[in-house]
Amino acid sequence: MTKLVLTAELVEYMESGVSLLVGSRDAALLPASARGFGVAVDAPSCTATVFLATAGTEVTLSNLRDNGQLALTLSRPLDHRSLQVKGHVLSIGETDEQGRRIQDRYFSLFCEGLVFSGHQEKLLRRIRYYPSHAVRFQIESMFDQTPGPGAGRMALVAP
Amino acid sequence: MIALADLQRCFAGVLPSIITTCSRSGVPNVTNLSQIFRVDERRIALSCQFFNKTKQNVAENPYANVEVIDPLTLQMYDLDLRFDHSQTSGPLFEKMATRVQAIASHTGMLGVFKLLSADVYEVLAIREVEGLIGPPLSDRDSDSEEAPMSLRTELRALSVVTERLRHATDLDGLLSTLLDALRDELSFEHTMLLLPDETGKKLVSLASRGYGESGIGAEVQIGDGLIGTVAQTQQTIRITNVSASLNYGRAIGRTAQGHGAHFPAAEIPLPGLPDAQSQLAIPLLAHGRLAGVLAVESKNPLGFEEWHETFLDVIGHQVAIAIENMMLRAEAEEAQAVTRSALAPGPTKTMRVLKLCFYRKDDCVFVDDEYLIRNLPGRILWKILRSFVDDSRAEFSNRELRLDPTLGLPPIKDNLESRLILLRKRLEQKCPELRLVPKCRGQFRLETSCNLELIEKDSS
User: Fold this and answer.
1) A117, exposed or middle or buried, with CB in 10 Å at 0-12, 13-18, 19+?
2) Do A56 and B259 touch (CB under 8 A)?
3) Cβ contact (<8 Å) for B251 and A80?
């Protein structure tokens, strides 16, 4: 099996306040969607932790506990550069203080990007991204998801 | 219970929606969605521009989940879906394809970025995502939700606009009345009316509001950009959150170029507001023929809703019929009119000299070295000026222009009326020393307070 390479540039992109879309499914293969608020990547182990607000993610958390199948799409609103990673959940737990700091930093960058795109900061500040759950997972595959003819292409390095 | 109609704002594309599907082997896939259309009370259609994993997954396992966001409140909704069928033709497909084509044209990506199918899904359940969005931080933060316009208000506005249009007596008056009425009754501040030129390959702006003087005479090739696409497809297009839509198209452009695609031209700039966030353009159709395009812009990403589109479609139909009737009536009345040959006043030493130059190669007229007008209106102006100077004629009829083979008007649907409106307005803006003053139906008089010096050259 070819090893995935998470380059420094790719990790920087993934942690830069991009939109985080989390996909899961239940035992009957019914899909569920949720939005993540914060991600931390560990390149050497090819693992990542995505933070899911506790409110509104009950189905997704139940699915991830049940079968561990996770898809995460990272997308930058300004230019639609997008990447999807897929893998299996390693652990799920309530977010600790260090995770909270990652979430706070993420949310500032996320709002900055959206405000730059014309969205109202006062509205964005109403999002209750904490309390949350930290979902750590093994990244097993990566796909270039930027809209265009190459969308869906498997990537071994940064797209 | 939440109805699909309640989620209309969520489908405007201001904030991207997401879709999750799952393969037969149980691997989920999540991605952004570019367009959602409400088909009816229990079905939505999603745009498919590329064959992708989502498409592959629903072929194996028809269930999908979509999360949408209300751009005014950030309230999210989960929709459980079951794939029903794909459409590659028909009204729904055409409507969605036209919008995609307009964005593709704006970003120079015609042919690369196009709709492959409109994928129709049955909506099995709609749930509000609870607890994620807190209450407004202050009372002032809750004022972003506007009260929707009621049916009664819409009908009253429709009645008033129709009544005002009824009083227009000529084409120029009709176009001006329409834009004034839309501004006064519907607060459409930035509007533009374009009519086809004599070649049928271009549209020319003849009336505008909210762009200063710059809008008049602007040309759009049929098929180019939002307005050109509307003219070509004869379909209404409404684009909300313009900047996001264009960014999406540009993202495709960059990746397509990476895959070896070549694009013939640079991006076509949007006519009108540089910071427009919503655009709506409707074709003016009379008996299936294109009489013009009405384009409306707003700086508000949610400036135009579904009812605006329906409303303007109704108005547009009336205006198209009125334009056609006015042109036909003008031709009939001109045929009966008697041309009077009033003499032009001779040159005097005290009047200033106005230097006009005609470039034969591109039928272009310059006044005191500044561009004035070209093509058919340019040829008409030059014919009038030559007669004025060479034969001392000051009065002219539309009929003699129509019959003059040197002007090259098409035998039917010559749009002479609209060419004369354009010429008159360009003179008002760029050369007020020359005036085309209507005398009676189908006749006008050239008036000037200058001595005219006419020069002809082959090319500029």
Assistant:
1) middle
2) no
3) yes
